[in-house]
Write a structure and sequence with these properties.
30% strand, eight-stranded mixed β-sheet, alpha+beta, 8 strands, 32% helix, Aminopeptidase, 199 residues
Length: 199
């Protein structure tokens, strides 16, 4: 992709990472993320345990990604690619709803899919950028983030960027002979605004 074209698609920029719109040129690396990477061990790994990484599955993921790139982009975005400042794709952020009866709450997620960029502060900055982008470009009242008790890295990042631990559902799922808690975080708009005023 042309460098100037990429810059036009950037929706948030930090010192370490950018958030930008998806592009068809990201398709092959996106498919590769679904086959490889440490992130798969922590982001609800049981959901894909029975779906082997066949060529057919890869083709389906590729097709869905390319079709997604053709769709009109909502404002604010529902997803974005995380890249280095040199435009190397690292993973993604997203937002989603849980039911139409809760329009004032969005759930957010993040995955750094390139293992060599883990534990370098990339995910922390990306999540901060995403939070700022979503609150700044909407009237949403709160953001929620859910994870699992074995994902200590995600819990640390959530708390570092200002999410408040709101509760746990203890021993919610058993995975590899270990009971895991479902862990729930939230951030209210006023908490985000207070944090901004302290900077």
């Amino acid at each position: 992709m042309d460098k100037d074209e990429t810059r036009m698609n950037i929706i948030a920029s930090g010192e370490k990472v950018y958030l930008r719109d998806r592009h068809p040129s990201d398709a092959k690396i996106y498919v590769n993320w679904f086959v490889n990477g440490e992130w798969k061990e922590y982001d609800a790994p049981w959901e894909n345990i029975d779906t082997p990484d066949t060529e057919e599955k890869k083709d389906i993921i590729l097709h869905r990604f390319l079709e997604d790139c053709k769709k009109d982009l909502p404002m604010p975005r529902t997803k974005a690619i995380i890249t280095t400042t040199e435009n190397k794709p690292l993973g993604w952020v997203n937002r989603y709803k849980r039911g139409e009866h809760f329009p004032d709450t969005w759930f957010v997620g993040i995955d750094i899919c390139e293992d060599e960029y883990l534990n370098k502060g990339m995910g922390t900055e990306a999540l901060e950028l995403w939070i700022d982008y979503l609150f700044s470009n909407s009237n949403v009242h709160r953001l929620s983030l859910d994870t699992w008790s074995f994902n200590k890295r995600m819990m640390h990042v959530a708390e570092k960027v200002g999410f408040v631990l709101e509760g746990k559902q203890r021993e919610f799922i058993k995975w590899k002979d270990e009971w895991l808690d479902a862990v729930h975080y939230g951030m209210l708009r006023r908490e985000w605004e207070e944090k901004l005023s302290e900077i």
